[in-house]
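For the sake of clarity, the format in which proteins appear in this thesis is described at this point. The record quoted next illustrates the convention:

___
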Amino acid sequence: MNEIKSYKEPRWVALRRKILHRDKYIDQYEKRYGRFKNADMVHHIFPVKDFPEYQFCEWNLISVARSTHNKFHDQNTDDLTDVGKELLRYTALKNNIDIPMWIFREKKKGKKYLQKY
């Protein structure tokens, strides 16, 4: 599978535009709670670094505002926050995907996940 090398790559630019259009440029996470914000970016629910096989799957992408996107990732480590993990869990259940348990393990300071499986 070809991993996104740059977010300026034509395949990604076209898919990003398609997702924003699909979602009518509305932040889909905030919309769930009856709040409406303009979306200016597309979020990979299953992160590309951990799940490259899902990077171009439309079901794995949602339109969000930058402020919402910041709720999904720890700004220092780029790891999923509890909010990001909850969205991943919801999406996995909706799409009948098994989630590896390492996603939900607490990390020790200064270390990445102890093991992936």
The chain has four helices and two strands. Residues 10-22 form the longest helix (13 residues). Residues 110-117 have pLDDT under 50 and may be disordered.
